[in-house]
Amino acid sequence: ISRPLSKCGMDRERGDSSLTLRGLQNRSHEKMKLRKRKSTLYFSTQEKSARRPGDLLGENIYLLLFTIALRILNCFLVQTSFVPDEYWQSLEVAHHMVFNNYGYLTWEWTERLRGYTYPLIFASIYKILHLLGKDTVQLLIWIPRLAQALLSAVADVRLYSLMKQLENQEVARWVFFCQLCSWFTWYCSTRTLTNTMEAVLTIIALFYYPLEGSKSMNSVKYSSLVALAFIIRPTAVIPWTPLLFRHFCQEPRKLDLILHHFLPVGFVTLSLSLMIDRIFFGQWTLVQFNFLKFNVLQNLGTFYGSHPWHWYFSQGFPVILGTHLPFFIHGCFLAPKRYRILLVTVLWTLLVYSMLSHKEFRFIYPVLPLCMVFCGYSLTHLKTWKKPALSFLFLSNLFLALYTGLVHQRGTLDVMSHIQKVCYNNPNKPSASVFVMMPCHSTPYYSHVHCPLSMRFLQCPPDLTGKSQYLDEADIFYLNPLNWLQTEFHDNASLPTHLIIFSILEEEISAFLTSSSYNRSAVFFHTHLPEGRIGSHVYVYERKLKGKFNKMKF
Asked: Is 50 exceeded by the pLDDT of residue 240?
């Protein structure tokens, strides 16, 4: 039997129901808010998908087209030589692969220190041109470089996209500006170098790397790109060591990361590399191990020159940064903590490469885009001096880019265009022969001539037997050039029709040139800064035949 409620009890019950009603109203209000939030997110997604048709690579198509156009212009405004590997470890190998072993493979390929994965890209281009009957020498030279330019443009856009995710459009814009106006990036980004490909893959991999604030992180994608960079150039493991270590330390599911991401990706890419090299070497070989053993463990790269331990800090790094250097230092102090890993990567790379005796500017090129992050951050925070700083940065880099791209060290490329014309304009091709008497690999070879001309150059393979007083052919030649020539060509019948030399050698071998009936037939400017065995000009000497100077029409 229910007892009647007292007035006090009735008030309490009324109060409780009032509180309950208020709570329900609040919860309902929260749900409405939540629904609003959800619908806003949904609307944002719809907005994104609506914008997608005008986008490419997640960015405005006009930005991508502008970047591609700039890199194509970049490609045609770089007409100078940088290092031999640009031709001898890529285009020359590709030419040998496609045109029935008609091309030259350097000692690295007989020792299996290099892999065919990177040259295969250009070999594919050459094969397509050959099948279409369009394998002219100009297309063989420029199409691979244009392909590299397109890849560099994609990397530039990816760097912009990454910074827009991590910061905002303003920071992204200034990082992008710094990347595009870097003189060394301009100088290298369209060259067919493994270092250039390593830099491209590093930027794109960083786009998918789990940096704090990134919305595009993907372990499989970034690790695949890192693995590909390692396959192409094994030293790519150096800049990626701190980045991979950081990811491993921060990942809560470490075993899952290794077993389901890193190991499968590593297995697939390494297997692909092994199969490609098996096809072209004719036997199973792990070129990545051979490369690291020669260059890192045995440090035999010193044969090609050595530098003091501090070279990268005192010369190499400041030179490739150029006038970006003060902005880089300023940006290091301003950038948030999440970018510390990028700075650690740059310093780690410089330190590791400093321990190797043989040093080159291009070795540290892959970390240059990381430096642009700090330079862009510096420009973002400049208020009073922003316009003068931008003008200074642009004009100083423009001068360096144009000078190094169009003037400095162009003679060794121009002379091969001349030789190519000699071959194509000579009705009796088998009689023509060329001897390049320069420091070895100074010029490109068959990839820039594309003609079955008899050619020779001074050899310079390193000693792999451990002799203490080893001298290669080029060293022996430069000890006494005149005596070497008189001994080598004691029989006039074996004399080449054309000699290519640096101007610095002319006086020393003038007696041989006169006695063997050679006349200078062409001169090409090379550099304003001659040094050692490299002269300011490149000379072509042609031999008189039957009392008449054998000149070709050009």
From this structure: yes
